[in-house]
Design a protein that fits this description.
17% strand, Rossmann fold, globular, binds 2-phosphoglycolic acid, single chain, 241 residues, 29% helix, 3-stranded antiparallel beta sheet, 7-stranded parallel beta sheet
């Protein structure tokens, strides 16, 4: 695992956008695995800027998002469908039929999970998977547990995650308790992985994901087994390294 420490959130976002840009320049049909949350927002702003300046073309790009809350309609302002649309997709030329996000309102969520994994395989797998990290070490919504699921699955969010995500909702009670997430196998199958983190709140998770121990108590620690995983963090997130 390669760890790059930069000075600021803005530098992290620029470097992350550089990685995405070079993947798309090398292969205009690249399959991107995308993440939501506060961390990648700056990277999306930068990618939109580069698209507007004619430096990057998303016409043939395919995307798969990591996760979505269960039972939150796509037009709900806190859904990850809404996040992706407003932060990225509305501002670039990616084709709607090439965008994939798990459907949190599917009638049969289990079926939706297997459909999602099938689509990733049919697309030829993910070339670059972008990840944030929870302060509890989760990636996607793969929460610390005795065992981790390989495939896309339904998950019960931990109190830590509900608390962390309540900042986007009016109250803790409004945070959906369940979500659909790509599993560890789906993430680890990506050809290249880029994990981003910023701020002291992530320092403990960054330390325990990179200390040479792999444990399901810190799902991100499995990335140490990936052959091409890069971590770009600011100096606050690197404080305990
Ligand atoms: P954040 O979330 O980017 O909003 O900190 C990351 C995560 O929980 O995976």
């Amino acid at each position: 695992m390669k760890i790059i420490i930069v000075q600021s959130y803005s530098e992290m976002s620029q470097e992350a956008a550089d990685v995405v840009t070079s993947i798309i320049k090398a292969n205009n049909r690249a399959v991107l695995g995308l993440a939501t949350g506060s961390t990648p927002e700056g990277m999306y702003v930068e990618l939109v800027k580069r698209f507007r300046n004619g430096l990057i073309d998303f016409q043939e790009v395919v995307s798969f998002n990591l996760d979505e809350y269960l039972n939150l309609p796509p037009d709900h302002r806190q859904s990850y469908h809404y996040y992706m649309k407003t932060k990225l997709f509305d501002h670039i030329n990616i084709r709607p039929e090439k965008v994939n996000i798990p459907s949190g309102s599917a009638e049969n969520p289990e079926l939706e999970c297997s459909r999602y994994d099938r689509k990733i395989i049919e697309a030829g797998g993910i070339n670059l998977q972008i990840l944030g990290i929870g302060s509890n070490g989760h990636i996607g919504f793969n929460e610390p547990a005795d065992a981790l699921s390989i495939n896309t699955h339904l998950v019960e969010l931990t109190p830590d995650t509900l608390q962390a995500n309540s900042r986007f909702f009016e109250s803790l009670e409004q945070v959906p308790k369940k979500a659909i997430t790509m599993g560890m196998g789906s993430i680890m199958s990506a050809k290249k992985i880029l994990l981003l983190a910023s701020g002291t709140g992530k320092a403990r998770a960054i330390k325990s994901m990179s200390d040479g121990i792999v444990t399901t108590a810190v799902p991100a620690s499995l990335l140490q087994l990936h052959h091409d995983a890069t971590v770009i963090i600011d100096s606050d997130a690197a404080a305990l390294l």
